[in-house]
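User:
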Amino acid sequence: MLFIAITVLSVLGILFGLTFLRFRAIPAAGEERNAPSRLRNYAGWLGDGARALFDPGIPAKALALYKTWTVRCYPGWRQWVFVALATSFGICAASGFFFAVFVPRGMFGIPLLCHVTAGGLFAVSLAALLLLRAGAYRPDDGPGAEKCDLCPVLKNVPMTYVLTGLFWAFTAAGLVLVVTALLSMLPYLHFGAQIPLLGAHRYGALAALIAAVVFFDLGILPRRG
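Assistant: Predicted structure:
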């Protein structure tokens, strides 16, 4: 029950925070000083954004964004590493959080089989990601010119440092997912030892999901007025 509450509050909180900060970054939004009016404007802006997701041109825009970003970060055959990582993580996250939040019994049957299969692909693609992209997120790299001005807490921190931290947070959480999954499959651990492993696996998944969402918002998704 505690994990369900933490998951729901964390996901809703991060989505509200990221969208509201994007709304605050719009020059016109900053002119409104009245809090209730600002919240009404935010709700209208959020509604416009939700309706825009059903625009017929959205698939073409998403494909263009994908091509632009992958050509720069994952050129050529390397894009399939990103596709494998994103697909496997999406399947694992969707199935894992759905059963953890809505099904008290937990995961079983075909969804469990799909989850385990996608987890194997995630482990392989995460290792490939580290081989291909770890050098681009070295902590000793110098700061770039762009600041993380979207978030007031990080506004003076170079964006390269923020993205580097998110990259390594995701990989660390991914390592927790892989290790806990492998340990839970060993025949040497009794049931009492499986419980903390399941808890670590779930919280590792939550950390990976939050890091991935924030990285997508700051590093991939373009700003929209």
